[in-house]
């Protein structure tokens, strides 16, 4: 049994690949070459552009547009009204569709409400982008990013808990190691 749900007000163009167990809610639009993995959730008013890819278990909250060039790996969380871009220097009178830049959102990443991700960046595994932050450059795995422009404020665990100086997750007890500026689970 597929158990995929597409609300009657959603538009899913012919050719779109929708994974088993995915739920697409009110007023969404999924373009014909978009792909979702299994068990994704697209909240109200979500747009998935052509050539976008969502891995398994991706949660896209209300009012998010995922434009061509964006790839989200498994277990990514896209907060309400967060924004992706796909052109560095857009102009209404200049067609730059051949200049779309790829944005890669790695496994387990969380992007908070109203954050902006400038195109051409890679967000490392399990990083956490705070609400309203503006990411203009690549983000390290497990980094906690806040502000405009976004700057690293600390580290988070796989479960999203902020790590203290001991680098032990306060929720799970998982231990981490910091080597050459990169955090890794032990």
Automatic annotation (TrEMBL):
Family according to the record: Belongs to the transferase hexapeptide repeat family.
Source domain of life: Bacteria
One Pfam family in the UniProt entry: Hexapep
GO molecular function: transferase activity
Keywords for the protein's UniProt record, in alphabetical order: Transferase
Protein name: UDP-2-acetamido-3-amino-2,3-dideoxy-glucuronate N-acetyltransferase
Keyword NADP in record: no
Keyword Flavoprotein attached: no
Source species: Mariniphaga anaerophila
């Amino acid at each position: 049994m597929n158990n995929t749900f597409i609300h009657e007000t959603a538009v899913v163009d012919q050719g779109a690949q929708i994974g088993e167990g995915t739920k697409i809610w009110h007023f969404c639009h999924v373009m014909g070459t978009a792909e979702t993995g299994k068990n994704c959730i697209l909240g109200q008013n979500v747009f998935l552009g052509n050539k976008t890819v969502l891995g398994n278990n991706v949660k896209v909250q209300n009012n998010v547009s995922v434009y061509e060039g964006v790839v989200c790996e498994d277990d990514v969380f896209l907060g309400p009204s967060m924004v992706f871009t796909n052109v560095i220097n857009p102009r209404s009178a200049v067609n730059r569709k051949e200049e779309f830049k790829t944005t890669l959102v790695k496994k387990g990443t969380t992007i908070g409400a109203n954050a902006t991700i400038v195109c051409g960046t890679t967000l490392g595994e399990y990083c956490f982008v705070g609400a309203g932050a503006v990411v203009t450059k690549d983000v390290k795995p497990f980094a906690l990013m806040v502000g405009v422009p976004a700057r690293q404020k600390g580290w988070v665990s796989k479960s999203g808990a902020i790590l203290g100086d001991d680098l032990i997750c306060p929720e799970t007890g998982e231990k981490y190691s910091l080597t050459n500026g990169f955090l890794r689970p032990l």
